[in-house]
Amino acid sequence: MEIDKKKIAGLVLLLLGSCTYGETDLYNRQRGKVTIALDWGEAAVPDSAAFYFYPFGENIAQVRMAGGNGFEGTLPAGRYQVMVVNTTHSGLTLYTDRGYDKANAYVKTDTDTNRTQPREDGQQLIVSPLDLCGAGLSQVTVGKEPASYVAYPVQQVFSVRLDVVLVGTLSIDRLEGELSGVAASVHIPTATPDFSEPAAVGFDLKQQAPGRFRSSATVLGLHPKGALDNEKAKNHLRLYVWLADQRRFVSELDVTALVKEAMENQTEGVVAATIKLALAVDPSKPQGFDLQIVEWNTGTGWAGEEEY
User: Fold this and answer.
1) I want to staple 62 with a disulfide (CB 3.0 to 4.6 A). Which of 53, 70, 158, 238 is the partner?
2) How far apart are CA 59 and CA 20, in angstroms?
3) Dist. CA 36–CA 245, nearest whole Å
4) What are the residue boundaries of the structural domains of the chain, listed by start?
């Protein structure tokens, strides 16, 4: 009997087509479409953002890159916790492989050996982090029906500006500083600073006028609740002072109350304060000098005077 090769070929193609269709249909049933819009408020919309989809109970996320306006795509059906973060941050290391609840950003260590000297409180010296914006969605369901959500990223780094006014007869050549008791990490989905291991941030103070210096730094968090009663969480200002004859001494001051007041009066993510210090020769001190707080005020300006 002569075999009709055309019929056999057609049958094979039909079987292959049916198999492919069935697999595609099953694949589609196991996936779903999800849209996550990003509302940046009054902030500028970035060019891109990273979306971390954590399946419930798992530490490793499925990562999707998208534009700054949001994400639209398909994912395996299931429930997710989602973290969104911008891609332009710096001075930070993101830990994203420990699950949604431990998706933290950690500030990198400051390796400026010109300033650093061992701290008695054991706090690590860190750099100033820059431009970390993030948000979280505690439950996103992907299924048969398309799902839409909105996330609201917030800036998780804020600026600290400290103006120092020095009075006294000694001539100051240069100032550098460190502020301790700041947060070393932040939980990105909830923008919650972590003070479990407080750190210190270093900064330079630039001379604006004779006896007047200004610094700026950025931090993830400055003042945890209960800091006034917790020695480990207190804010200490360490100043490295170079005199005109290049002698140097180091002084450390408790500024916890000042920082608390400045935090309460912050505007638009900027914490600002002016501190007035008296510097004098004091042979009874280990380094022969004494630095004392005369007064302070919070907010912009030099203790109410015109800015330089």
Assistant:
1) 53
2) 33
3) 61
4) 5-25+32-298
Cα-Cα-Cα-Cα dihedral sign, residues 198, 202, 207, 211: positive
CA–CA distance, 179 with 164 (Å, rounded to integer) = 13
DSSP state string for the chain: ----HHHHHHHHHHHHHHHHHHHHHHHHHTEEEEEEEE--TTSPPPSEEEEEEEETT-SPPEEEEEETTEEEEEEESEEEEEEEEES--BSEEEE-SS-GGG-EEEEPBP--TTT----TT-PPEE---B--EEEEEEEEEESSS-EEEEE--EE--EEEEEEEEEESSSPEEEEEEEEEEE-SEEETTTTEEE-SS-EEEEEEEEEEETTEEEEEEEES-S--TTGGG-GGG--EEEEEEEETTS-EEEEEEE-HHHHHHHHHT-BTTEEEEEEEEEEEE-TTSTTSEEEEEEEEEESSSBTTBPP-
At 254-284, the pLDDT tens digits run 888 888 888 888 777 788 888 888 877 776 6
pTM of the model: 0.81
